[in-house]
Hints:
The complex is a heterodimer of chains A (400) and B (67). By secondary structure, chain A is of the alpha+beta class. Chain A contains 15 helices and 12 strands. Chain A has one domain: CATH 1.10.630.10. Chain A has a 5-stranded mixed β-sheet with strand order 3-4-10-7-5. Chain A is globular, with a radius of gyration of 21 Å. The two termini of chain A are 36 Å apart. Chain B is of the alpha+beta class and 67 residues long. Chain B has a single domain, classed as Alpha-Beta Plaits, CATH 3.30.70.20. Helices cover 27% and strands 21% of the residues of chain B. In chain B, the strands form 2 sheets. Chain B has a two-stranded antiparallel sheet. Chain B has a two-stranded antiparallel ribbon with strand order 2-3. The termini of chain B are close together.
Amino acid sequence: MTEVSEIPLHMRRAQFDPIDELGEVRDNAGVCPVVTPFGVSAHLVSRYDDVREVLSDSARFSTADRHALTPPDAAGLTEEEYARARVGNLLTYDPPEHIRLRRMLTPEFTVRRMHALRPRIVEIVEAALDDVERAGRPADLVSTFALPVPSLVICELLGVPYADRADFQRRTVDQLDASHPPERRLALQQASRAYMATLVERARREPGEDILGMLVREHGDDVSAEELVGIASLLLLAGHETTANMLGLGTLALLRHPDQLAMVRDDPASVEPAVEELLRWLSIVHAGIPRTATTAVTIAGNTIAAGEHLVLSLPGANRDPALVDDPDRLDITREPTGHVAFGHGLHHCLGAPLARLELRIAYPALLRRFPGLALAVPYEQIAFRPYSVIHGLQALPVTW
Amino acid sequence: MRIVADRDRCIGAGNCVMTAPEVFDQDDDGLVAPLVDEVHPVDPASVDAARQAVARCPATALRALED
């Protein structure tokens, strides 16, 4: 197990908040050295304007250099094996390859598509709440609500059997756990790809009415089986783990701010701004995928040489006083901000409209079903996940 | 205020449709399809929303040309 002191600065939190040292870096040098959980030396970028600039400039800041993710001697893999592990993972593609794959997926996540999905998501949320209510109190909201809802949604959308959830949920949590050595995480990634390959194979034989089926039907000639495996693996991981942590952590945040919880529960007009503020304030993704400078650049007065790596702190940017006043305060009545919780630039979260829809349905539905929702243990006993690439809770014991 | 959308740059994030639904739409491919060429200054709410949408476009695919 990794010692706490080894957790890199950008992943360390004091419950909800980034630790004070991150704010000090932002207020002073703006950039500081960091070693990623994958053992890569990089520059940590902490200010809103700088993070946004790097994220939006894919020409000067590439995501395709595998050395930004894994040190040269990491797991004893050959370059070919590394390359194979990344095929279809859009996050590691630069233009123009990136846009080719992304354009295949954008029709699935339009605002209109999301509107059509709404009734089904309401049904899924209400059924999960029925289960919670039937099982009785106390309940762990993470395992009974926060995780099942987005898991079922992405399974249906993508064409993954929900019956397989125990396996893929466990693999995802392990894959994102930075306390595992790189070899272990690479092996898990390969296991995830092997699982997805069986689903891709099936979709190629009998394409269904889901995203996998659509990709096979409409792009079957332009996309390889390996690419399909990479795309679908990324969508499955990103589709359940992120929204699940937003639901768990966001519910806890509201329980700690009862006035704001009451607004979300009682005033439908407060829900959309509340979701945006929770996204900003929680910034559950500690950092965007690391970038590699393709040319010498200056960031906050610091010179970064071509070939050096950059880690972009999303909570650093979203808690920057340059973005909002009093940034450390959760305030769901704020005017909308240009937060970067979903990233920015070409790799901006593809599923953001889906995540927003799920959160806008799930928070008020939960709070209306259980108007007396409360923690079942003292706040101090709530376990946050210290080693995960995505911030979240181990469990959220509640009663009502 | 004139609205210019570069569909080659668009990544279909849908932020503009969410921020300024009376100005922006998406086609079936998910790419931006402005509903209007111009936002009239007599409609300050739309002007404001359109400016926000332009500023927040993750792909820098939108421009607002002030008259």
